[in-house]
Structure formats: structure tokens, C-alpha cells
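Folded chain entry —
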Amino acid sequence: MNKPFKKYHKSEKSEENVRAKKHLGQHFLKDVNIAQKIAETLTEKSYETVLEIGPGMGVLTQFLIRKHKCVVAVDVDRDSIAYLNSTFKDAHEAEITPDNFEVKEADFLKMDVLTALGNEQFAIIGNYPYNISSQIVFKMLELRNFVPEFSGMFQKEVAQRICAGPGSKVYGILSVLSQAYYEAEYLFTVKPGAFNPPPKVDSGVLRLKRKANFNLACDEKMFKDVVKTAFNQRRKTLRNSLKKFDLSVELKEDAIFAQRPEQLSVSEFVSLTQKIEADAI
């Protein structure tokens, strides 16, 4: 087992000066054992590149840079960035060098990830800011051709929603779009006491591993539109919620349109999209 990262000198940006900022949705993980468990959620022994979102004070980073060939940490908080650069990149330890660790001041939701990392495969991990966690997943899905694995910590409710199956009350847009391309697994729960400051809710750690065949047998833009439109009126049957697609009378008689969106599996949503595509011809 790797030892926690040892500070060899006083950082230029002291630990006391890095405070969690509410407007950034920050809750710094302080439990080193939990951090190591999260780092181990990536199943590959070593990825060429791992993108860490929201590294904060580096409690997860310290384990990632021991395991992977290149770790790129992205954060918008300048206090955190200064602390990470001072604490990690200036440390004199053979396994922690500037060669395999880079800090970028950037908003993941706005950054051109492929320009920053190159058109290569990379994993994504992080203790994700609760206030933008869903948007992070949606952007990751846009990058799915380059992201074989995605893991990390969310608000428990969001993690459960991503991993939920048909029939669940929390099964929705995030569930279907994530599971269309990835195998989703809820791994473990983290209590508020593991953070500083502690959030008011439990957190959940999940893993998304890209399917071997992640190309859908339908128009993927239409698939996304169908899923979002259906769940935007989730209490209605598909016959009523999908009116914008100008369905033919014959198609609306199909038994699938008598169901509500939470009853459909991913494969049934693909089939539904195929039917709508064919109807439009």
C-alpha cells in the first residue's frame, strides 16, 4: 500500500489559505483511505493519461500520480492551483515529478479537452463539485470516443440516478444516456464526516466503463432528443410526450407508446428511436 504523500517543505501557498468555496461547490475530501479507494476505482493498472477534475488540495491526486503515467489536474480555484503546484511539483520524491503531473487552471465544462490532452484515450476521475456534476457527465458523454473509463464521487442522489435501472423512481435522462455507452456501477457511499467542510448529504462513488461496442444502432442525436423529450414529461405516456416528432397514426398504435419513459430499458429506447426514424421516411 502506498504511503500518503509527504510534504517535504512548507508550501508557498499554505494549507490554511486554501478554503473550500461555496460558490464553487467545494467540499475537500480529507479522509486519505477514502481517497485511495477512489483512486483504485479505475480498473486499468496504468493509463497513459488521467484527467482529474477538481483536485482541491490533492488528497486524491497523491495516489493517482503514483499509479498513472500522466495526471492532468484541472481546477478553476487559483488557491488550489497554487497549493498543488507548490506541494506536488516542487516535491523532491522520485515517484512524484513534474514529468507526470500537470495542473491546468480551467473550467472543464468550457475547456477544449482534446486540444489540451491530444486526440488520445484518457480516463477521467475526480471528487466532482456537486453544483456541476450532472453537466460534467454530459460533457464526458460527448467525449465518449476518447474516454474508456470515468469514475469518482458525486452527491449520492446523483450517483444513484446515473446507475439506476428501469422502473426506479430516479431512473431518467442521466441514467439512459450514461448506460447507453457505459456499464454503470455504484461502488460505495461516503459519509459527510470525510469532508471539510462536511456536506449536508451523503456522497456516492461510481464507475462508468465504456462498452466494447458503444455505437448505437440508431441516429445518436435523435436518440438523445427522444430520451430528453420523453423524460421532460415523465408522467405522460410516450404517445403524449413525444408529440413533437409528428408521429403517424399507425406508429402511435405501437404498444411501446402506451408506456412511460421510466419503463423502457436503454435497448428499448434505441428501438423506439429506430421506429421514429423509420416513421419519418
The two ends are 59 Å apart (CA to CA). DSSP finds eleven helices and nine strands in the chain. The CA atoms of residues 235 and 248 lie 22 Å apart.
